[in-house]
Design brief:
heterodimer; A: about 110 residues; mainly beta; five-stranded antiparallel sheet; about 0% helix; B: about 110 residues; seven-stranded mixed sheet; about 55% strand
Chain lengths: ~110, ~110
């Protein structure tokens, strides 16, 4: 069956360090993979989309990699700040578009001052 | 603020009842999506509409229905409510069919 797994439910890191979150999937061949941030009681906020033919994408302090052989995406936040504390969700669409998103369960990141 | 609005913010009702959740997409967006987020199931796609027509369907129960109106706002109707329907319901919108989705603040439904 199709599955999306995010490495851990919770991750604590020290301010200034790089946070690395993992998203693994099985029995999908997605054309895109997306990362969202969600704060408690609020809707997810889109961060980055990476396509299957892109190995890496960057936006400010964020970097995403996509390895279709390993069926894995890594999400990095460099020079992390307490304001980066949130739940981060990866999402993909089994149909290959960006339409019908299936989300992982999320990793709750806490950046300690 | 994503520009997507949802009403009401909170809704408390009893089992067996029917409720309607409302969503107004961002200005210019033609697609509306509905998602359910519960503690045990995570964020799950329910249904998508594009310019008034249904475009994609996820794990939406038969007791649930949705529509998108000519002014592009959308409503999600939940009937014969059960305790397990208690969740956060999010609406998202996008410009076209496959574009980036922008989520609203959600409606928290509590079924007692």
């Amino acid at each position: 069956s199709q599955k999306i797994e995010q490495n851990s439910e919770a991750l604590n890191i020290q301010e200034g360090k790089t946070a690395t979150l993992t998203c693994n999937y099985t029995n999908y061949s997605p054309a895109y993979l997306q990362w969202y941030r969600q704060d408690p009681g609020r809707g997810p906020v889109f961060l980055l989309l990476i396509r299957e033919n892109e190995k890496e994408k960057r936006k400010e302090r964020l970097k995403v990699t996509f390895d279709t052989t390993l069926k894995q995406s890594l999400f990095h936040i460099t020079a992390s700040q307490p304001a980066d504390s949130a739940t981060y969700l990866c999402a993909l669409d089994p149909s290959g578009s960006a339409r019908q998103l299936t989300f992982g369960s999320g990793t709750q990141l806490t950046v300690l001052p | 603020d994503s520009g997507v609005t949802q009403t009401p913010k909170h809704l408390i009702t009893a089992t067996g009842q029917r409720v309607t959740l409302r969503c107004s997409p961002r200005s210019g967006d033609l697609s509306v999506y509905w998602y359910q987020q519960s503690l045990d199931q995570g964020l799950q796609f329910l249904i998508q509409y594009y310019n008034g027509e249904e475009r994609a369907k996820g794990n939406i129960l038969e007791r649930f229905s949705a529509q998108q109106f000519p002014d592009l706002h959308s409503e999600l109707n939940l009937s014969s409510l059960e305790l397990g329907d208690s969740a956060l319901y999010f609406c998202a919108s996008s410009r076209g069919v496959d574009d980036t989705q922008y989520f609203g603040p959600g409606t928290r439904l509590t079924v007692l």
